[in-house]
Design brief:
mainly alpha
Length: 174
């Protein structure tokens, strides 16, 4: 006799909304955490986050960073200059195309930053260890797909809102 697959009912709109609020809270806390760590190392939060992007990608071009961040190429160049001057990253010529420059994290340079995150990393690992492998796989799927969708949405937001910023000022209190 064949097993009948059990199909779960769709999530209620209120549960979906609750997940959205939880993700927003986590995102906001992530920004605040980055600000706290960046302040310790006398860095701008954007510099710290871009340093993490470079670390995660191993090697990137300035163009890839501009695309990922939405910063102008000039701003990305200035950011890379700051990170290089502080000793966090290095530039190397691309072996396949000598005109392209690759940016990578200098070995050992981010160890003090890793150390600043260590207590939180340990505590998060302990928390996550309370979940089963299948639950963690589901969480990873959720986070991976949500992040990819967020990247797509940010690209759309940038394209759709590429207008004169002076027309979008916040209303003044009277």
């Amino acid at each position: 006799m064949a097993k009948q697959s059990k199909i779960s009912p769709p999530a209620s709109p209120s549960l979906v909304e609750h997940v959205g609020l939880c993700v927003r809270k986590m995102g906001a806390q992530s920004v605040l955490t980055s600000q706290a760590i960046a302040q310790i190392f006398e860095m701008h939060t954007t510099d710290l986050e871009v340093l993490d992007l470079i670390f995660l990608q191993k090697q990137v071009t300035a163009g890839q960073l501009a695309e990922a961040t939405g910063l102008s190429t000039g701003s990305v160049t200035a950011l890379i200059d700051r990170l290089a001057k502080a000793g966090y990253v290095e530039r190397t010529a691309c072996a396949q195309d000598r005109r392209r420059v690759l940016v990578s994290v200098c070995p050992g340079a981010i160890e003090p930053i890793k150390l600043a995150y260590m207590n939180m990393k340990r505590r998060m690992s302990a928390l996550w260890s309370n979940y089963s492998a299948s639950e963690l796989e589901l969480v990873c799927d959720f986070l991976t797909r949500s992040t990819a969708l967020q990247v797509e949405c940010v690209a759309t937001i940038r394209t759709d809102n590429a207008v004169d910023r002076s027309t979008r000022k916040a209303p003044r209190k009277r």
